[in-house]
Amino acid sequence: MATPPAVLPAPSVRKPPPAPAEPRIVPRRKPGQWAAAAVALLLAAMAAASVVRNDAFQWGVVADWFTARSVLNGLGLTLWLTGLTLTLGFLFGTLLATMRLSANPVLRTLSWAYIWVFRSTPPLVQLLFFFNIGALYPTLGLGIPFGPEFVTVRTVNLIGPTLTAVIGLTLLESAYAAEVIRGGILSVDRGQLEAAAALGLGRWRVLRRIVVPQAMRAIVPSAGNMLIGALKGTSIVSVLAVSDLLYSVQLVYLQSYQVIPMLVVATLWYLVVTTVLSIGQYYVERHFARGATRDGLPPTPLHRARTAVRTAARAAVHRAARS
């Protein structure tokens, strides 16, 4: 009888060593930043508490006068003056910027001299100068230089306090607007203009489709700062007895001697209006920043808030389902 063949033992298989665990990245601790943040938060809380608990602010008086008719009328005049002077300033500033960029040396020199004069003198001095223009020029005429005048107008009857404020602020804002517009135009790459000329595009189409959209990315931030500065700068017209927001509250506290609460009323209105303008500036900047980056625009604060609310709601639903 044949013996069965011997069964050889199976060769042992070595198990591969376990893969090393991936190292966990731990952010570096920054105790100094947290300590500085805690100190800053403590100081901010102390400042807020001192404002809220200080009876000298008279918050009840502030609430009574915040929506008073005289204050709202002054606020309306401030907004009207800001919008009118800034609009006229940018229209005139566009002309000045075009003159600065012109190849004509006479136009460049005249534009530069205008900007130099109005940026070098204080706004209050300019307003007082225009308000007293009647002492220097009692009459203004239109006619032939060094010859007869055809139309003559007395400046005393022509320029009042409100018109003086409009003229002075418009001439001032136009000098700053000219530099803002000129800087925005110069920020456009010259290579794109050369490429547009090589494609045979007209000058108006190049200006409308290439120059202006790219220049606005540099113009809008500075223009927004100019808008907010013009809003606050209109307060200097109170020296001319123009009934803007500041002059309206001044009339109230000169009669009631409630100086601090009335100044708080004006401050709060300036804060409200500048906040609204800042929000508008943010969305205008986003509009002209489209296509500037390949990754797209970051989400707005409203989108972030919606995302946070949705995430919190989903987490609450999951916790409820598990329980």
TrEMBL record:
Region Disordered: start-end pairs: 1-26
Keyword Ribosomal protein assigned: no
Domain ABC transmembrane type-1: 75-281
Membrane topology: Multi-pass membrane protein
UniProt-listed SUPFAM superfamilies: MetI-like
Subcellular location, record wording: Cell membrane
Assigned keywords, A-Z: Amino-acid transport, Cell membrane, Membrane, Transmembrane, Transmembrane helix, Transport
Coiled coil: none
One of the GO BP terms on file: amino acid transport
Protein name: ABC transporter permease
Organism of origin: Streptomyces rubellomurinus (strain ATCC 31215)
